Amino acid sequence: MIKQTHHFKQHHYLVINTEPKQIITLMNWSYTIGRDSSSDIVIANDMISRIHATLERVSDLSKGTYQYKIIDGKSGGNASFNGVFVNGNRVQEHTLAHEERIVLGGVIEAIFYSSSQLINKEKFTSTFNQLTQNNYASYLDESEATSIML
After folding, report:
1. Nearest to 17 by CA among 140, 124, 137
2. Which of 16, 45, 132, 147 has the greatest CB tally within 10 Å of its CB?
C-alpha cells in the first residue's frame, strides 16, 4: 500500500519596496531578478545587476512542501556586483523563511512571505490585507489572493 503524504496549498509572496511597490505571487520553479528587461522580476535601479539574483523553488518531498531559496546572481553563474543580503548578512545562497528581509544591491528592500511556515494564520491574513489595501502594483493571481484570505 502506498502511503500518501498530506499536501496542503502553500502561498509564497515577495514584496519589493520599489516605486510603485511590487507584490509578486511566487508559483514558478525559478525567477530571475535584475535590471535587464528579460528578467522575470525587473528592478530599474543602477545598483542592481542585469541578473542580480535568482529565486529557485526547493521541494521537501518527505513533507509535501516547498520553499524558495535566493541565489546571488544567476544559478551556476557569476554573483552580482553589489550583493544579496538576508537579515543583514551577505549571502551567496539562502533558503528563505517567512518574513525574512532581503536587500538587493544595498538599496532595494524586499520581504518574503510564506503561509506554509505560519503558526498564526490570522496574523498573516492581517499583514496580507494591509499590503493589498494600498494601491501597489500587484502580480497577485486573483484566485490565490482569494484563497489566502479565506
Report:
1. 137
2. 16
Indicate the number of domains in the chain: 1
pLDDT recorded at residue 149: 28
Are 30 and 59 in contact, with CB atoms under 8 Å apart? no
- pLDDT tens string 59-75: 888 877 889 999 999 98
Q: Is residue 6 part of a domain?
A: no
Rg of the Cα trace of the chain? 16
Sequence letter at residue 48: I
Percentage of the chain exceeding pLDDT 90 = 59
Average pLDDT of span 120-138: 53
**Is residue 3 in some structural domain?**
no
Say if residues 99 and 80 touch (Cβ distance below 8 Å).
Answer: no
Residues with Cβ within 8 Å of residue 144, at least 6 apart in sequence? 11, 25, 27
* Domain contains 148: no
- Residue 118 domain flag: yes
How do residues 33-50 score in pLDDT, each as one tens digit?
Answer: 999 999 999 999 999 999
Q: What is the CATH number of the domain that holds 116?
A: 2.60.200.20
